[in-house]
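Protocol step 4 of 6: structure prediction from sequence.
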Amino acid sequence: MAIARTLQTYLAHKGIAYDLLPHRHTDTSVNSANSAHIPPDRLAKSVILEDENGYVMAVIPANRHVRIGHLNRALNRRMGLATEAELSPLFSDCDPGAVPPLGDAYGIATVVDESLDECPEVFLEAGDHEDLIHLKGTAFRRLMRGSQHARIC
């Protein structure tokens, strides 16, 4: 697949330059970081949560876990993890478990963990389990400008 069509269109529309970094097939973000020989704290992953008001994408480093209580307090909501079955129609051009952490591209509200705000470079899932997108930190921050930022890990 290389890069999800929605993601490719979104990055082109935003004028964002990126490199594609292939790696061996992996099943987790941390394994992707290890396979690609990059620091796992610079690989941004998405965690999709939901409540009666809809979906929210939490963007966190690959080696961290979202603290749902912190996220709920930051948003004044009571969310839980969305299931893979719910995500398939939302991310139809992505492999299950390889959702790119750019909620805006898919029309989903996004909250970014503050630990990613100062990274000099950031890597993202490209929509499959064999490719990462490499962005300069300034490009990532530009893409996340409209998102809420909080300590959610």
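Step 5 (inspection) to follow. The mean pLDDT is 95.
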